[in-house]
Model the fold of this input.
Amino acid sequence: MANDFFQFQQFRIDQSACAQKVSTDACLLGAAADLTAATHILDIGTGTGLLALMAAQRAPQATIEALEIDPAAAAQAAANVAASPWASRIRVYPLSLAAYAAALPLSSAGTDRPFSHIICNPPFFRRSLAPPDAARATARHEGVGSLTFDDLVTFAAARLRPGGTLTVLLPPPEMQRFEQIVLAAGLPAQARLVVRHRPGGRVTRCITQFGGVGPLAAHERSLVIQDAAGGYSAEFRALLAGFYLAL
Done:
C-alpha cells in the first residue's frame, strides 16, 4: 500500500485523496522535461500536483497552471501547492481539459496561445480491464471518462505558442500511436528519452518532446533506472539529485 505522503527535498506530496500516487514515471517526467526558457507551463492531469511542483522548482522564472478533473485530487494538489515554496506561481484548476479550454479567451492577438510548455502523463491503458475504482480508472485508462490522446493533441496544437513544446510520458506502443496523432497536427518530435529498468532490458517508457524545431534522430538518448547491482544507476541519480532525499 502506498504511503499517504512522499517527502522530496524542497516540498512534500500528501496523496491520501489521490487515485494516482507518486510514481517513478512521474518523477522521471518532471525531472527530464526540457523547461529551458519556460515562462508559462501547463500541467494537464496534475494528480497530486507533483509535476507542477517539480516544474516550479526547476523553472523559477515560470508560472504554472495545473488541471485536475477529480475534485478530491485537485483539492489535495492545491493544498500541496499552498504548502510549497512556490505557491504564488502555481494555480490548480479542478477542471477537465475540455472545460478549461472552453474558458480560455479567444484572441486575434495570440493571447489564446499562452503556453510555452505543456507537460502531461496521460492515461494510456485502452484494452486492459479498467480498475473498479472510478478515479483510478480516469487517471490511468484513456477514454474512461478521461483525457484522450486526440483531446491532448488538439489542445496543444491550438494553445502552444510558436516554438512551444509538449512533453509526454508513455509506454512504447502507446507512444507510437500518440506520435502518429501529434505529428499529423504539425508538432514534430524533437527529442526522446527511452527508459529501461535494468541494463539490457526492454524499453518500458518513452518521454518525448514535441514542437519546437529539430529532428528526432539527433536528440534521442536513453536512461537505465537500475545498475547491474540493482541500485539506482548513476544517470538516474544525477537526474533526480535535486528531488529525492536519498539516492
Summary: The chain has eight helices and ten strands.
